[in-house]
Sequence to fold (75 residues):
Amino acid sequence: MDEPTEDQLEASPKLEKRTVGDEIRYYVKNIKEHWPVVVEQNPDAAGHEAWWTKDGKFHATHDQLRRDAMVGAIV
Fold:
């Protein structure tokens, strides 16, 4: 699947734009809503974060979220 463009990230109601240091990030607003199975199987996932950088690269603080990320399902 193609990485989202900066315009898609900006327009998504499912993401929240934040600046961390000098980097712009687009955080998933509700991990549990987008990955309910992951959170059910790994309850600690709900406290983690997932985001894209403006170049469209996906990042997550939980291994299962990284493996299961489906860009088109969120942006």
Notes: The longest strand covers residues 15-20. The mean pLDDT is 84. The helical segments are 6-11, 31-34, 36-41, 63-68, 71-74.
